[in-house]
Each structure stands twice: as structure tokens, then as C-alpha cells.
Amino acid sequence: ALYSKRFRTIFDYLRKVFWNHLYHYDDKYYRLRCLPHFYIIGQPKCGTTDLYDRLRLHPEVKFSAIKEPHWWTRKRFGIIRLRDGFHDRYPVNDYLDLFDLAAHQIQ
What we know:
mainly alpha
């Protein structure tokens, strides 16, 4: 595939980050971390908030700490608002931390 080398590099990096969060207990490593199984994406005013609100009604669907983390689109590049310029990049650990409550609920 066109992006296979790029994705392989990204996932190799993510795998290392995941291992850094494990702790050792009784000859085993533990820490439940969650990444979303899917994303709700869309342009403004296309109904994504309505879909989000309806999914929240289901007892088996878990959510991140905030509705729109924007990590994949701009925060990982250090962009919070374009007019403010670039800031420090948000590391993937900060993104994963948004799902700690969901991981705890799943556990």
C-alpha cells in the first residue's frame, strides 16, 4: 500500500510507548490502555453531535474524557489555534490519558 511504510513506522513507535506504561507485578506486565475502536468524523453541522449523543445512551459504549480531542488533526503537531502559532507538541501519552476513564470502566 502507498502508506504501509509510514504506518509501520507509526505503529512501531506506538508499540514502544505502550510498553513504557506497563508495570511489573507477579511476573506479569499490567496497564490497560484504550484506543478508540472507531471515530466519529465529519464537517461542522453534519450531525456528528447528534450521533455522539445517541451513542452515549448505550450502556456498553465508553468515551474519552473530552468529546473532541483534536489530537490526530492538530494537537500532535503543536497547533491549538492557527492564529496562536505553534506550541509544544502533545505526546501520544497525553492522548492515551484521555481514555483512562474508559479503560477503567472496561476493566
